[in-house]
TrEMBL record:
It comes from Carboxylicivirga linearis. Keywords: Flavoprotein, FMN, NADP, Oxidoreductase, RNA-binding, tRNA processing, tRNA-binding. It catalyses: a 5,6-dihydrouridine in tRNA + NADP(+) = a uridine in tRNA + NADPH + H(+); a 5,6-dihydrouridine in tRNA + NAD(+) = a uridine in tRNA + NADH + H(+). It comes from the Bacteria. This is tRNA-dihydrouridine synthase. Belongs to the dus family.
Length: 341
């Protein structure tokens, strides 16, 4: 391994002085298109970090697999410009088990992409991934986890964080979090569940508070964000006050309200349909010929609710095969609403 690539980018983990609000990395969700939509629906100053889908370091370093995974690192120019104007940082998340592959992937992120930072996935609970010893399975191999962090840090000077859980089959907050706090990371994002819970049950914020206490004792310079069951900025603010975290990462909450980072705003039907069309058009423009249209359908529900006729409209949208059909159906729906007024 060579010397770290110097990027000249700021360490946002130390430069952000207020509570930090972040959108979690989610597979087939937080691509460049959805991140841009979130930015356009957010109030400036109310979101600080947007994370990419997680990319396999094995796939990236494979001569054939690389082209299959690189789309996760794609940033549209429009998203990049909007993020710059809103002072929002874009973070690439990566996962795997081989420190050398982490080094090579991190080096590429620093040299060839516009991401502002790197996050290592040590929290995903999916069975097909933990069978490989990756993500939350790294909780069981702390020495390897430390090697991965060291290799990633050696590859570039980009800000580095780790997203993890409080345990694998059982809660091991003290031993596991203490290990991570003694590594060269700038921030730690702690999900208040263990691996075997997946996304079920209630997130244990008392264990997150324990992680904060450990941070204060071992390495106060590391920022610590909490994650789990937060559905609004108001809830995030409450978590900061009650549990002492430096900020909150939201995951599934974005599906309940894509305007989550525009606190107090209640979008009407017109705004919801406008956002739906924006998302569909951006998706078509960005991914036609590369990604299946069906991936977009999971988003229709987050826009088509809270107004009369939403369920019927959503059922129609689920049968579409492209943006032209979406536009036609939405146009007909709006015309029908106008006739009934």
């Amino acid at each position: 391994m060579n010397k770290a690539i110097k990027t000249g980018k700021e360490n946002y983990w130390s430069s952000i002085k207020e509570s930090i609000w972040a959108l979690a990395p989610m597979e087939d969700v937080t691509d460049t298109v959805f991140r841009e939509v979130v930015l356009r629906l957010s109030k400036p100053g109310h979101v600080h970090l947007l994370f990419s889908e997680f990319l396999s370091t094995d796939g990236f370093c494979h001569p054939v697999g690389k082209e299959k995974v690189l789309h996760r690192f794609h940033i549209n120019p429009e998203e990049q410009e909007l993020a710059r104007k809103m002072n929002v940082k874009l973070v690439a998340q990566i996962w795997g088990t081989d420190p050398e592959k982490f080094y090579q992937t991190a080096k590429y992120i620093a040299e060839e992409t516009e991401f502002d930072g790197i996050d290592i996935n040590m929290g995903c609970p999916m069975k097909n991934i933990i069978k490989k010893g990756a993500c939350s399975a790294l909780i069981n191999t702390p020495d390897l986890a430390r090697e991965i962090i060291t290799a990633t840090k050696e590859a570039s000077d980009l800000p580095l964080s780790v997203k993890t859980r409080v345990g694998f089959k059982s809660v091991v907050t003290e031993s596991w979090i203490s290990t991570l706090l003694q590594s060269e990371i700038d921030a730690l994002i702690v999900h208040g569940r263990i691996q075997k819970m997946m996304s079920e049950g209630e997130a244990n914020w008392n264990e997150i508070a324990k992680a904060v206490q450990l941070r204060n004792e071992i390495n106060p310079k590391i920022k610590l964000l909490g994650n789990g069951d937060v559905m609004s900025v108001a809830e995030s603010e409450q978590k900061v006050k009650e549990f002492g975290v430096d900020g909150v990462m939201v995951g599934r909450g974005i599906f309940h309200n894509p305007w989550i980072y525009h606190p107090g705003h209640e979008p009407d039907m017109e705004e919801r349909l406008k956002a739906l069309l924006l998302h569909a058009r951006l998706y078509s423009k960005t991914w036609t010929g590369e990604k299946n249209w069906s991936i977009l359908k999971r988003f229709f529900k987050i826009y088509t609710n809270s107004f009369k006729g939403a369920a019927h409209l959503r059922a129609q949208l689920m049968e579409t095969h492209g943006v032209d059909e979406v536009e036609s159906i939405v146009k007909a729906f709006k015309e029908d609403v106008k006739r009934r007024e």
